[in-house]
């Protein structure tokens, strides 16, 4: 008897939920129907003028760093050859001291390389964050103009009408609004 009353109460609750009809948001208002557009986010992040500019700046700085690293590696090889020549004439304690100094220089170069890689990664992330921030503002403006409320990534769509794709317009606006981004790089 008790279980049938519970079932009847649950059935009534379910019926009441379905009878209400439209779903409501947290404020009790009806949720508007979805007005969907499609965006090729990866294409924008690859083809926008700002993203290309960021990559060029990072690549230029990476080339400077690589040239510096090549010089340091050459100096380390020369120091290693000198240490090998001195191995026959130095006392074991003196040779051990020179070897420790050489290993210390290797560690310094490796630490410097890691710091430069971190700097490049952080500069790239900063620049791309600026592109994403501007892109978000452009999408918000387009949403107001075209009255859409949902943007789906192109890669998740099996089929859609091409009129739903806002990528070209978004890319055009992004290139006009943010043609370049100055990435912060430490000058050495």
Structural summary, described in words:
It is a single chain. With 188 residues, the chain is mainly α. The chain has one domain. Helix content is 69%, strand content 4%. It has five helices and two strands. It has a two-stranded parallel ribbon. Helix 2 packs across helix 3 (49-86), helix 3 (49-86) runs antiparallel to helix 4 (92-146) and helix 4 packs across helix 5. It is rod-shaped and about 85 Å long. The chain starts with a helix and ends in an 11-residue tail after the last helix.
Characteristic key phrases:
69% helix; two-stranded parallel sheet; rod-shaped; 5 helices; mainly alpha
Write the layout of secondary structure elements.
Elements: H1 2-20, E1 36-39, H2 41-47, H3 49-86, H4 92-146, E2 150-153, H5 167-177
Parallel strand pairs: 1-2
Task: Kindly report how far apart the N and C termini lie.
Answer: 84 Å
Q: In terms of structural class, how would the helical and strand content be classed?
A: mainly alpha
Tell me what portion of residues adopts beta-strand conformation: under 5%
Number of helices: 5
